[in-house]
């Protein structure tokens, strides 16, 4: 589904996971593959300058909780800075570490799902 279609049905407080925004393990440098998804979001934001977003970083529960918190914050900040340089929308960012899993961390797939960058409409 196109980002525009997906965004049209959203309300304040809804979380959207950026499916193809990825980082190497224990890194906050954006993978090259992330730019396609971010370009779609930038196009949407330029057409809708009134939209305000909180960019969020999330991790799984593997490793040190404090390290995960810092990593999630840095990842959210990198996406925030990339978007802020290209749009005029009001954006904020926050790292949630391992505090907001969307599925159990008991399986490899669950942990992969919880390692995400997302945004919430403000």
Give an overview of the whole structure:
The chain is 39% helix and 16% strand. With 122 residues, it is α+β, with helices and mostly antiparallel strands. The protein has 4 helices and 4 strands, in the order αβαβαβαβ. The chain has a 4-stranded mixed beta sheet. Strand 2, helix 3 (65-84) and strand 3 (91-95) form a beta-alpha-beta unit. The longest helix has 20 residues, at 65-84.
Task: Offer a concise description of the structure.
The protein is an alpha+beta fold and 122 residues long. It is 39% helix and 16% strand.
Secondary structure elements and pairings:
Elements: H1 3-8, E1 15-17, H2 34-47, E2 53-58, H3 65-84, E3 91-95, H4 108-114, E4 116-121
Parallel strand pairs: 2-3
Antiparallel strand pairs: 1-4, 2-4
Which features characterize this protein?
122 residues, alpha+beta, four-stranded mixed beta sheet, 4 helices, 4 strands
β-strand percent reads 15-25%
Biggest β-sheet description = 4 strands, mixed
- Uncertain segments of ≥5 residues (pLDDT<50)? none
- Mean pLDDT over the full residue set: 92
Number of β-strand runs: 4
So what's the overall shape? globular
Radius of gyration: 14 Å
Order of adjacent strands in the largest pleated sheet: 1-4-2-3
Distinct helical segment count? 4
Query: What is the CA–CA distance across the termini?
Result: 22 Å
Helix content: 25-40%
**What is the element string, with H for helices and E for strands?**
HEHEHEHE
Instruction: Supply the helix-strand structural class.
Output: alpha+beta
């Amino acid at each position: 589904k196109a980002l525009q279609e997906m965004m049209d049905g959203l309300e304040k407080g809804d979380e959207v996971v950026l499916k193809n925004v990825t980082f190497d393990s224990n890194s906050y440098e954006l993978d090259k593959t992330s730019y396609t998804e971010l370009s779609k979001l930038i196009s949407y934001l330029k057409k809708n300058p009134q939209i305000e977003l909180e960019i969020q970083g999330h991790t799984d529960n593997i490793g040190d909780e404090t390290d995960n918190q810092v990593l999630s914050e840095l990842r959210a900040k990198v996406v925030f800075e990339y978007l802020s340089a290209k749009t005029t929308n009001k954006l904020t960012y926050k790292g949630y570490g391992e505090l907001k899993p969307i599925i159990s961390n008991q399986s490899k797939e669950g942990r992969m799902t919880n390692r995400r960058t997302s945004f919430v409409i403000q």
